[in-house]
Structure formats: structure tokens, C-alpha cells
Amino acid sequence: MIRLKLNPLTESATLLRRVGVVLGSVGLTALYSLLILLRALYGRLHRQIVDQYCREWSAALLRLVRASLTVRGHVPDFGDGRRYIIMCTHASHYDIPASFVSLPGSIRMLAKKELFKIPLLGQAMQAAEFPSVDRSNRERAVKDLEHARAMMESGIVLWAAPEGTRSPDGKLLPFKKGCFHLALDTEAVIVPVAIRGIHQVLPARSWQINLGQPVDVRVGQPLETAGKTKAELEEVMAEVRLRLEELLGDGEAE
User: Fold this and answer.
1) Is 100 exposed, middle or buried (0-12, 13-18, 19+ CB in 10 A)?
2) pLDDT tens for residues 163-185?
3) Quick check: 234 pLDDT over 50?
4) pLDDT at residue 3 in the model
5) Which comes out higher in pLDDT, residue 249 or 103?
6) In terms of Cα–Cα distance, which of 235, 98, 113, 116 is closest to 175?
7) Least crowded by CB within 10 Å, which of 13, 113, 203, 231?
8) CA-CA distance, 215 to 95, in Å (whole number)?
9) Using CA atoms, how far apart are residues 90 and 252, in angstroms rounded to an integer?
10) What single DSSP character describes residue 116?
11) How far is CA 60 from CA 2, 47, 56, 97, in A?
12) Is residue 95 included in any domain, yes or no?
């Protein structure tokens, strides 16, 4: 078990503090986006520096809300040459920073195309090898997933939220099939990750921020998909859901 203390003191943020967190988060995101774009402009951007920037940005965001992170479970060796896809619960915008801080490897989020339309951030994500998926266009989505597969084969660990949207109460929502198709297509190892308490930091569809919230990142037993066929898609989805539900339960991941 790894415990990362970030000055915990649980309290509901005042309006002034909420404004400070929002402005600080926007400023940090703009700063690191600009750093990535400047390095890309001068041909000095490489995967390792993107990894470093992602973790620095994530740690700074978590410090703004004084989150107290605990990491439980065995984290796989993402550098063993196999393809990996992290399938994570999704109950807050802070799921991604918590994952970047807690897990090793060149992690990149499988992102919605709408994020790439955000000025500065969208261009930085593209330069930093964040794959996108256009869910509104089936033909385009297939091409996007093929591109994501190529990135995985080059050593990138994909982060995906099988629920597709944020859960308002931390409970699992119905799964989408896209990331499971990708896992089977690439014979990837699925690493289930559940983040408990994260929905209370910034509840979905609200501006309420809780400072010093304890957050528990739980890494489950990896699921091999090598040799599995599309006929077993539903079985794989059910197994991942079961493992995430167990991680979200009262017992601690070993």
C-alpha cells in the first residue's frame, strides 16, 4: 500500500476558495499545455517529458484541493512489452489526475473528441499523443480505435472509462463497448482501477469542492484478453465490472 499525503484537512470550500481552485486549475492546465506546444514547436518534445508534465500537472491539481491519496493493490510492470489498457471508474474530473499520480508508465487518456476543441488544451493533447474517439460517427470511431491500437503497440498505456460519463454517486454506470473492442483487438491486458471517494472532491455536475478529501486508488487483478474472441466480449465486460465492483466494495484490494 502506498500513501501519498497532500496536506489533508477535510472541509467544504468557500466560494472564494472554489474560485481559486478553478482559476488555479485553468492556469496550470494552460501552463503545461503551453510547455508541451513550445517543446513540440522546437522539436524537443518526447514521450518521457510528456509523462513528467502529466504527473507534475496532476500533482499540482490535487494539491489545490488538498486531496489525500492512498494507492492499494499490485501495479503491473507496464514496461514488460505487453499492451495495457487501464479501465477506471469515472466519478469526477479528478479521476485522471489521481491515476497519473498513482500509476507508472506512459499513460494517455482515451479522450472524447470534444476535448480537442478546447483552445490550447486540445492542441497540446494532440501533440502529447492523447488519442480521441468520435462516438457520434461509427466509421470515424473505428479509425480512431485503430489509431489508439497503434499507440498501444508503441508502448503507451491507455486510460479509459468504460462508463463513458461521470457517475454522480460513485456507483458504476452501464458500460460502453468501445474500449472493450479495443482491448480484444489488441489482446491487451486490462487493468481494473477503482477510485473511492473521488466523487466527493468535485461531485459530477456541481461546483461544490470538498478539500482534504481522502481518495483511495485501488488496483485490481489484471485480466488477460489474449486468445479471447469478440464472441466473449460480454463475458469480458461482465468480469471487469465484477472486479471493479469488488474494488469499490468495503474490502481492501490486496
Assistant:
1) buried
2) 988 888 888 999 998 889 889 98
3) yes
4) 52
5) 103
6) 235
7) 231
8) 10
9) 19
10) G
11) 19, 20, 6, 9
12) yes
Query: Is 60 exceeded by the pLDDT of residue 194?
Result: yes
Q: 171 CB contacts (<8 Å, ≥6 apart)?
A: 248
Instruction: Identify the domain containing residue 211 by its residue range.
Output: 2-247
Single-letter amino acid code for the residue at 186: T
Distance CA 222, CA 14 (A): 41
Number of Cα atoms under 13 Å in the Cβ half of residue 56: 13
Supply the angle between the helices 95-102 and 47-64 in degrees, to the nearest 10.
Answer: 120
State what percent of residues in the chain have pLDDT above 70.
Answer: 93
Cβ burial of 112 (10 Å; 0-12, 13-18, 19+) is middle
The mean pLDDT of the chain is 89
SS3 percent helix, strand, coil of the chain, rounded to 5, is 45, 15, 40
Task: Report how far residue 215's alpha carbon sits from residue 197's, in angstroms, rounded to the nearest whole number.
Answer: 5
Q: What is residue 192's three-state secondary structure? A: strand
pLDDT at position 207 is: 80
The total number of structural domains that make up the chain: 1
Query: For residue 6, is it within any domain?
Result: yes
| Residue keyed to cell 488544451 | 121
| Distance from C-alpha of 193 to C-alpha of 243, rounded to nearest angstrom | 9
Please compute, for residue 166, the number of CA atoms within 13 A of its CA located in the half-sphere on the CB side.
Answer: 17
Whether residue 252 lies inside any domain: the answer is no
Q: Kind and range of the H or E element at 180?
A: helix 178-186
Q: Which 3 state secondary structure label does DSSP give 251?
A: coil
The CATH number assigned to the domain holding 201 equals 3.40.1130
- For the entire predicted model, the pTM comes to 0.89
Question: Is 206 inside any structural domain?
Answer: yes
Q: CA–CA separation, 52 vs 50, rounded Å?
A: 5
State whether residue 5 is helix, strand or coil. Answer: coil
